[in-house]
Amino acid sequence: MPAKSEQSASTHAVLELDRFLPYRLSVLSNRISQDIAQLYAARFALSVTEWRVLAVLGRYPDLSANEVAERTAMDKVTVSRAAQGLLKRRLVERASHEADGRSHRLSLSQEGARLHGEIAPLALAYEAALLSGLAPGEVTAMKLLLKRLEAAAIRLSGEGAD
After folding, report:
1. H or E element that contains 108
2. Cα–Cα distance between 32 and 127 in angstroms, integer?
3. How far apart are CA 84 and CA 104, in angstroms?
4. pTM for this structure?
5. Which tens digits make up the pLDDT trace of 74-85?
6. How far is the C-alpha of 94 from the C-alpha of 145, rounded, in Å?
């Protein structure tokens, strides 16, 4: 008969990290972010967070910090700090929100748009290199699966419930 501690251990699920999808996605995301951070920091003096804010505003101008946080799934405080750094460097401009005097709208300055235009091709080249070992159908399938997983994560977190 097994000892009591052996019994309780055998009845609990074993979490094998190498097979646990959230862990694997987190590790992959961290590796990619570190690679990109080295490029952006060395060449453009930007943190990954600052680049994400810059990229979002390059695609979706005139957003509040809350809206940037929603689009990036980053903490609002983290987004606000990144935005402050970009404002100090005059890469982002801030305007009062017409409907809500307490919040502000963010958009790229002329210099921010120029920098975005310089970095975007490098980001796309990194993505192409990352995906180069996959067949086009695999890339399409992976993007579809990521979209579905993101939707499931939003449902599980209760964010999508209105």
Report:
1. strand 104-108
2. 10
3. 12
4. 0.79
5. 999 999 999 999
6. 36
